[in-house]
Amino acid sequence: MHDSDGLPGHGGTVFAIQRPGQVKVFTLHEAEALFPLVRFITVQAHDELAPILESARASMQSHEALRQQEKRYEEIVRRWINKMERLGVVVAGLWLLDFDTGDGYLCWRYPEVVLGFYHGYDQGFGQRRPLPEILREHQPDWAASGEGEER
């Protein structure tokens, strides 16, 4: 379902734009509200890169043609990184994002369809755990159901 602005699940919510390099601390509710927009932007960037990658793999091209494709690839990735950072999300790798909770990260990697993993600050992608386990074991403050709470 798309709203009038074309973004799935956006629901007319206005999100604060951060300065580049400024990380936002998210509640679970805030991260889940922002997630459809993050996924939408990521899908667009990923889909925009697909023909560039396919073309580079499929053909023998001149050095200049490859250089132009590389430049276009970098532009798309930089634009995606900039958008994610402006939303306050931590870019941990290509198509890999972390939402800072104040004690660790809600972790997502494209093409996952939900924001479903968590890892601590001193851990990485390899140590992430399913979010339901974390919520059950620790009942963290960032997962409290208060939608309007300021942090």
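The record above closes out task 2.4. Task 2.5 opens with a second protein, given below.
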Amino acid sequence: MDKKNKIHLRPMNNGDLSFLEALYCSTRMRELAELPWDQSAKSAFLNQQFAAQHNYYQAHFPHADFQVIESAGTPIGRAYLLWSDIHLQIIDISLIPSYRGQGLGSQLLAAWLERADDQRLSAGLYVESYNPAQNLYRRQGFEVTGEDGVYFKMLRPVHQAKY
């Protein structure tokens, strides 16, 4: 996908759990920075939160594609997608800090939405209300259809495939 970095997605396996846990922790560090906890307390909390999220996703989305994003054979992120006959649910996409802000997430999202358009699928996701990625999602046609105080529920209606 990226001219400098050949991006590849492969199925997640149990050998990826340490990487996925570290990735999850990297997505929450700024959020926890202001807490008066020592580093070991923050790490224990994040490890517990990762385990809970991982177990939840595995139990509630058994037919999802749980993928590791790689660049030159090195894990750099995760993409969890659930494709159905009528809808693409983007469960999660995240990249390690050194790969954020380079357009890789945008490229992946564009490819998934192109596939959804080709199959005439709607697309949906949840994003934290403070996450700047929601601007990208809006540019790609997602609209806020609900919120619960922490997350926005966003939906992109079925688009016509471009021919």
